[in-house]
Amino acid sequence: MIARLAERGGVIGVVLYNAYLSPDWTHGDGRTVTLDAVVDVIDHICQRLGGCANVGIGSDFDGGLGWENNIPRELDTVADLLLIGDALRARGYTEDDVKAIMGGNWLRLYREGLPA
């Protein structure tokens, strides 16, 4: 699925939901998942594809899950999404890669697919 989506020029949005980020997490575990898990998932996709052009943040900000127990512990507000960029830099991602993952890939996709 990852390769096929990339072949078509798509962007995979990594959803910040603990159950998607950690196979061991279950409801009731609280906010035990960290930003390291977010970067692990992003890194997995980038390694599979050989680059960062097809991955982004899929925040899923519909409010249906509740932040109290279902998202990584470092995230409390939308402003905390910037911490993902910091975690990517700490993992060795370049500034261009961080910009792409944090929103640039979505902007590219929108510009290509939406009318001017």
Task: Give a structural overview.
Strands 1-2 form a two-stranded parallel sheet. The protein has one domain (2-113). The protein starts with a helix and ends with a helix. It is 49% helix and 7% strand. Helix 3 packs across helix 5 (82-90). It is globular. The chain is mainly alpha-helical and 116 residues long. The longest helix is centred in the C-terminal third of the chain and has 19 residues, at 95-113. The model has no long low-confidence stretch (mean pLDDT 90). The protein has helices at 2-7, 18-21, 35-49, 67-70, 82-90, 95-113; strands at 12-15, 55-58.
Labels describing this entry:
116 residues; mainly alpha; two-stranded parallel sheet; 6 helices
What secondary-structure arrangement, pairings included, does this model have?
Elements: H1 2-7, E1 12-15, H2 18-21, H3 35-49, E2 55-58, H4 67-70, H5 82-90, H6 95-113
Helix pairs in contact: 3-5, 5-6
Roughly how many Å is the radius of gyration? 14 Å
Order of helices and strands: HEHHEHHH
With helices defined by DSSP (H or I, 4 residues minimum), what is the helix count? 6
Strands, count? 2
Tally of distinct domains? 1
How much of the sequence lies in strands comes to 5-15%
Class based on secondary structure composition and strand pairing? mainly alpha
Helix proportion range:
40-55%
Strand order of the largest sheet: 1-2
What's the gist of this structure?
The protein is mainly alpha-helical and 116 residues long. It has one domain. 49% of the residues lie in helices and 7% in strands.
